[in-house]
Amino acid sequence: QLLEAKASLNLAQTRHARQLQQAKAQINNMVPKKQCEQLQSTLRDEQCKTQQLQESLHQQAEQTCKQLVRTQEEHEHLLQAAVEQAERLEHSLRNAEAVLAERAAQLKDAQTQLFRNEVLIEDLCGENRGFAMALQAAELKQKTMEEKNQLLEEQASALKQLIGKITPASLS
To answer: What ranges do the domains of the chain cover?
Structure first.
């Protein structure tokens, strides 16, 4: 718009200069007074239009300048906000990576401990099987001993009865 306004202004100034030259030439050629007045009126009108175009062009240039300044300020503000957000995101990412690394280390430690516990459980299961077999053997031995003990008690009871029968007979 600024370029168009400048072009219009240049065109009007050129037209004005041409009309001025024509007016001077006509005056020099002894233009009648009425025509001269008409040309002067046209000249004043053209000068007024030129002045209006210059003012309009100046206003448009000021508005465009102000708008450019506002746009530049908005862009700078948006850029600053984007930079700050990028910094916040980068900080969050570093924190998340640190937490992730810490959790990975914890998981590795837990996995190592779990492996140790599995080995210990296997050892305990082996010992438990050994104890179970020893207990089973001891129970079998105890049962055998109880059966022998029962048999000995029965034999002792039978001997007592026999002694009880033999002793009165031998005393008599």
So the answer is: 15-29+38-164
